[in-house]
Amino acid sequence: MMEDQEALDLAADWSDISQGLRKDLGQQLHSQWIKPIQLGSFCKETGTLDLFLPTEFSANWVADRFADRLSLAWKIARSEVRHVRISVHPSRRQSADLRLAGASRRPANDGAPSGPIPQPAPLNLGGNELSSGEFSVLGQPAVGLDPSLTFASFVTGSANVLACNAAQRMAAAEKPQFSPLYLKAATGQGKTHLLHAIGHAFLQAHPRGRIFYCSAERFMVEFVQALRQNQMIEFKSRLRGFDLLMVDDIQFIIGKASAQEELLYTIDALLNEGKRLVFAADRAPQALDGVEQRLLSRLSMGLVADIQPADIELRRKILEHRLARFAPTAVPDDVIEFLARTINRNVRELVGGLNKLIAYAQLTGQSVSLQLAEEQLTDILSANRRRITIDEIQRTVCQFYRVDRTEMASKRRARAVVRPRQVAMYLAKVLTPRSYPEIGRKFGGRDHSTVIHAVRLIEDLRTRDADMDGDVRTLLRQLED
């Protein structure tokens, strides 16, 4: 039990540290180098925390550039962490040895005679990609694919059902009717999950299949490295020997003419051989500025499947699906509803918020409640609240209480007018960053002390009057949806 709590504690700290680094470094650098980091064990005696990356290249790169920053962040988060050790995950080294040991086993679908055949060295592309040898050698799972990111764990709704169905078709045993498949979605909506799921399902249907999976940025790095080392022939031959090619974040290939040309030739070669291709990006192919027209044509010639932001029904389903992992921890329905309504920017933040809330509750022995969620998820909640204007608040309140909009600025003091005006002032203070004097000016030039009185009065009424509290909750839901 203590070990589980320690792991949850580390995971919660890493979530905070990772989010902070994303803000400091930017989305591109964070996705490429920080996101692939996996937490290892923490030795309390030496104060050493292990952080693992998938390849020697990425481990060395992160150690050279981010070791001091990671060490400082962990020391701030946990004073007992004195050393941070960055290395390759031991299982990756074992898998590499296994691939070399099985290199003489040529894939059955190559159509070549059996027997020992010399194989080129695995193409090391770092990050989440697969080399030419990483295709379930000796029954081992493909390295680079997250085992938790499968179709079974992907929750579908109206926003993503087309993309999910298309992804399943791409991975099926029978040849798909379209190729390439282009997944378009904003950050955190599930396109990377689908890429991993395609890889797992493809290997189930084609146990000896050869998969290549990387980011466009990683493709660029390895292309330049091969160019400088005069290894372009090897680079091309290995790249075009795969049965399934998957490239994530294709928008990062913008402006790189030589790499675009090589990717174009690779796409043509694989399509001519009936191979399968999947690309993912945060925008449609036509919106990729700086990309050659011929490449844009190839990217959009198959099926472009759009993943829309998850609606509230899908967000509820995702939270309920995730809760199964935390049984028997109880999460009240009002907390699920609150998270589903409030954390609406992307699914990754939604799941991260639930993980953090449950981890905090388990580690402190508290029960999960709406108050605890509001206290512990302040940063996530504030980032997800859309910008609401005072004009919008006034309009919504007037419609709710059936009063004329002009009453918000009038001098009338009838109770039927005063109370809605006070509620609107309270909501303006809660939902906007405006100061008391600024709010007062929007309500007919009233003094800031009038606004302060209204805010305190409504706060007090919410604790004593169930009807008033219900009215405010209803208005909050209407304004935040």
How would you sum up this structure, described in words?
It is a single chain. This protein has 481 residues and is of the alpha/beta class. It has four domains: 1-88, GMP Synthetase, Chain A, domain 3 (2-Layer Sandwich); 123-307, 3-Layer(aba) Sandwich (Rossmann fold); 310-385, Helicase, Ruva Protein, domain 3 (Orthogonal Bundle); 390-480, Chromosomal Replication Initiator Protein Dnaa, Chain: A (Orthogonal Bundle), CATH 1.10.1750. 54% of the residues lie in helices and 9% in strands. The chain has helices spanning 2-25, 27-34, 56-77, 90-101, 161-171, 191-205, 216-228, 232-239, 257-272, 293-299, 312-323, 333-342, 347-364, 370-376, 378-384, 390-401, 415-431, 436-442, 448-464, 466-480; strands at 38-43, 48-53, 83-88, 181-185, 211-215, 244-248, 276-281, 303-307. A five-stranded parallel sheet has the order 5-6-7-4-8, sandwiched between helices. Strand 2, helix 3 and strand 3 (83-88) form a beta-alpha-beta unit. Helix 18 packs across helix 19 (448-464). Residues 93-143 have low confidence and may be disordered. This is Chromosomal replication initiator protein DnaA. Keywords: ATP-binding, Cytoplasm, DNA replication, DNA-binding, Lipid-binding, Nucleotide-binding.
